[in-house]
Design brief:
Distance between the termini: 54 Å
CATH class of the largest domain: Alpha Beta
Strand order of the largest sheet: 5-6-10-8-9
CATH architecture of the largest domain: 2-Layer Sandwich
Number of domains: 3
Number of strands: 11
Radius of gyration: 21 Å
Strand content: 15-25%
Shape: globular
Number of helices: 10
Length: 285
């Protein structure tokens, strides 16, 4: 794929190939060997994704979808075979939030902070992993199966991910679970459906997409399962020199179903979580 191929489907100012940009996308903080992509493309719509996938299929060009911002850590966004990086961070719409059904539809560029703020206005919250960075994509976190901290709502390993719209390598659009039809998404909304059931007739395609790091297709929106935001909360901190005593305490709380979150940390990790790296270093001595 050359620049002319990209300019046939994209605006020139969103096709980047300067040395500084390519270097930024060539590496992360993992042990993956760095390699520069040929281009970085900033995408805004699912139609643009579909057009680029079709061009890449015709020219046999690898595509690397990226939705989280820097810093990155896991090697999944390093273009090991070269190709074109699809930066989806500009696709950051919160399409809708439904409080009654406790579900939200979001694009891949949506971050946890803005989403939680919008959900709070509706009296909802999203179960989330421990302290995700500000630039972390919610959709990417769900696709990577990052465990969240509310196990009483974690009924399936795919939670809180529900339905997805994905563009496969042929350029065809596929919607998983209840979103697959019948009818368009708008027609389903008019009928009162909210794309909340992830299972299809025979299988759950979303579970195949999870963990694939964009190798099977590019997800352009997802629905996520939300929970009611408590009006009254009371946090407790329990400390002990004995791990066995802490675990027995946690087991008892779980048996009694007390509390949404139970988090066990040693002194070093607790200090890091509180933003006190010097205290964490002392805890390691």
């Amino acid at each position: 794929m050359d620049r002319e191929d990209l300019l046939n489907v994209m605006e020139a100012d969103r096709v980047l190939d300067d040395s500084e940009t390519l270097d930024r996308y060539s590496r992360d903080h993992s042990f993956a060997p760095p390699r520069k992509p040929s281009f970085v493309v900033k995408l805004k719509t699912a139609t643009e994704v579909q057009d680029l996938v079709r061009v890449a299929t015709r020219t046999r060009t690898p595509l690397i979808p990226v939705s989280s911002g820097e810093p990155r850590f896991r090697g999944g966004t390093v273009p090991a075979l070269g190709g074109v990086v699809l930066d989806l961070s500009g696709m950051n719409r919160i399409c809708w939030i439904d409080r009654k059904d406790r579900v939200a539809m979001i694009e891949p560029g949506v971050r946890f902070g803005p989403l939680q703020a919008e959900l709070a206005r509706k009296g909802l919250r999203l179960p989330m992993p421990l302290c995700p960075r500000q630039t972390k994509s919610v959709v990417a976190s769900c696709l990577e199966r990052e465990p969240h901290l509310m196990p009483r709502y974690h009924l399936d390993h795919s939670d809180p991910l529900l339905c997805n719209e994905v563009i496969f390598g042929t350029g065809d659009v596929f919607r998983t679970g209840e979103a697959g039809g019948p009818g368009t998404i708008e027609e389903q909304h008019q009928a009162g459906r909210r794309q909340k059931i992830p299972m299809g007739i025979q299988m759950n395609i979303s579970k195949i997409l999870q963990g694939s790091q964009g190798t099977l297709g590019v997800v352009t929106w997802s629905t996520v399962k939300c929970e009611l935001l408590p009006q009254i909360q009371r946090p407790f901190l329990a400390a002990s020199e004995s791990l066995e005593q802490i675990l027995e305490f946690a087991y008892r709380l779980v048996r009694l179903r007390l509390g949404d979150e139970i988090l066990v940390l040693n002194a070093s990790n607790f200090s890091l979580l509180m933003g006190e790296p010097e205290a964490a270093g002392e805890g390691l001595n």
